Amino acid sequence: MGHNFLSDANTIQLLLLLYFSIATLSQHSSNFLTHPPYKFCSNTSLYEANSPFQNNLQTLMSYLASNASVSNQYHAYAGNDPDRVYAQYMCYNYITNEKCSACIDAASQDIMQLCPNNRNATVWEELCQLRFSNKNFIGQLDFSGNIPLANRETIENSVQFISVVNENFSNLTKKAAFEPTQSMYATGKLALSDIDTLYTLMQCTTDLSSHDCNTCLQVAIQNISNCCYVGRGARLLSRSCYFRYELYAFYEGAAEYSGTQKVYNFPRGKTLTILKIVLGTCIPTVVLAFLTASCIIYFRRISRKETDEEKSHLAFLQELRKSSGSTLAEGNKVKNIVFG
Ligand SMILES: *[C@@H]1O[C@H](CO)[C@@H](O)[C@H](O)[C@H]1NC(C)=O
Ligand SMILES: *[C@@H]1O[C@H](CO)[C@@H](O)[C@H](O)[C@H]1NC(C)=O
Ligand SMILES: *[C@@H]1O[C@H](CO)[C@@H](O)[C@H](O)[C@H]1NC(C)=O
Ligand SMILES: *[C@@H]1O[C@H](CO)[C@@H](O)[C@H](O)[C@H]1NC(C)=O
Ligand SMILES: *[C@@H]1O[C@H](CO)[C@@H](O)[C@H](O)[C@H]1NC(C)=O
Ligand SMILES: *[C@@H]1O[C@H](CO)[C@@H](O)[C@H](O)[C@H]1NC(C)=O
Q: What domain of life does the native source organism fall in (predicted)?
C-alpha cells in the first residue's frame, strides 16, 4: 500500500507529460481559419520610433503599395546598412491588379500595426502577403513559421481524402515549380465524386529557384496533411509560397461554399470522425481528472503520514513522561513536530 503507483512522484511527472502531449496533439487539429490578416512578428529586434529604419520602412511600404497596381509580385529595398529594409509582396495570381493594389495597401498598414517596431515581420491577407526584414531574404527559401489553417467545416473521412488527393497535389507542385510557362503558379481541379470538385492553388514567390519552389510546396502539403485534412478547405501560409484548396472554385471568383447543397461524404467516415473527437476531447479530460485525483491523493497521503508520525511521537513521549515525569521536554518536542 505504501508504494502504490499513485503516490509515486515519477508517475505524476509521467502523467503530466502525457497530458501535455495529448493536449498539444488535440490543439494541433484546432488550427482553424478565422479572419485575415494573419501575422508573424519575430519580436527579436525592435526599432526606435522616428529612427532611420522606420523612415526607410515607411518609404518602402508606400513604394510597394504603388507598385502593386502594375505587378502581382515585387521586392525591393530602401536605405543603407545598418538601417536597410528589404521587403517583398505577393498577390495571388487569380486577382486583378486593382485588387492587388488595394490588398497591398491594406497589408502595408496592417503589418505596421500588428507587428509594431519589428524589424522582421510578415502578414497574410485574404488575397496577398507582404513581408519585410532588416536581413536580405530575397531568393532564399524560408518555411520556418509556416501557418497551416483548416476551414471550420470538416469532411467526413480525412484518411481516405488524403490518399485520393496527395498524389494529385504532388503533381500540381511539379507543374507550378518546373513548367516555365506557369511562372510558379498552378491551379487544378479534381473530381472527388459526382457532385464534388476539389479546387487547388499553388504559388511561389518568383525569386525562388524551381527546386526551392518545389520544396516549399511539398513542405506545404506535408504541413497541411499533418493537421488540416479534416477541413473542407485549407491553406498554408508560408513566407515563400502559398497553397490552398477548397470545394468551390475560389480562384474563379465563385461564392464561398455554403455547406448545404453539396455533401462530400466518403463511406466509412463516421467512425474515424468519432474516434478523433473521442481522442481529441475525452482523453485529455479524463487524464486531467485522473491527474487532479492523483495529486489530491498524493498530498493527502503525505499529510496523513505526518499525522501518523506525530501520533507515534506523542505515544513515545507519553511513554517517556510516564518514566521520567518531565513536562518541559514534552512541550519542546511537540512544538518541534508541529512547526518543524
Ligand atoms: C510578437 O508580439 C505580438 C504582439 O505584439 C504577439 O501577438 C506575437 O505572438 C509575438 N510573436 C512571437 C513569435 O512571439
Ligand atoms: C525573421 O525572424 C524569424 C524568427 O525569428 C527567423 O526565422 C527568420 O529567419 C527571420 N528572417 C529574416 C529574413 O530576418
Ligand atoms: C514597379 O515595378 C516595375 C517592375 O515591375 C518597375 O520598373 C517600376 O519602376 C515600379 N514602379 C513603381 C511605381 O514602383
Ligand atoms: C500524376 O502524374 C503522373 C505523371 O504525369 C500521372 O501518371 C498520374 O496519373 C498523376 N496522378 C494524379 C492523381 O493525378
Ligand atoms: C489531378 O487529377 C485530375 C483527375 O484525375 C486530373 O484531371 C488532373 O490532371 C490531375 N492533376 C495533376 C496536376 O496531375
Ligand atoms: C512544416 O514542415 C517542415 C518540414 O517537415 C517542418 O520543419 C515544420 O516545422 C512544419 N511546420 C508546421 C507548422 O507544421
A: Eukaryota
Q: Please list every protein residue whose CB sits less than 6 Å from any atom of ligand 1.
A: 41, 43
What pLDDT, in 10s, does the model give residues 94-110? 999 999 999 999 999 99
164-193 mean pLDDT: 93
**Ligand 4 mutation pick, 171, 173, 174, 200, max ligand atoms within 8 A of CB:** 171
Residue 90's CATH number: 3.30.430.20
- State which residues form the domain around 81: 38-133
Which has the higher per-residue pLDDT, 152 or 51? 51
Q: CA-to-CA distance for 64 and 100, rounded, in angstroms?
A: 11
- How close is the Cα of 35 to the center of ligand 6, in Å? 22
Q: Please tell me the number of Cα atoms within 13 Å of 25 on its side-chain side.
A: 15
- Which of 268, 299, 322 is at the close of a domain? 268
263 and 158 co-located in one domain = yes
Cα dihedral 141, 210, 216, 32, rounded to 10, equals 120
Total domains present in the chain: 3
Residue 193's Cα: distance from chain center in Å?
31
Whole-number Å distance between alpha carbons of 227 and 38: 18
Instruction: Kindly state whether residues 42 and 89 are assigned to the same domain.
Output: yes
What are phi and psi for residue 262, nearest 5 degrees?
Answer: -110, 145
Phi and psi at 45, nearest 5°, equal: -125, 130
102 within 8 A of 130, measured Cβ to Cβ: no
The model carries a pTM of: 0.73
User: Considering only CA atoms, which residue is closest to atom 6 of ligand 4?
Assistant: 171
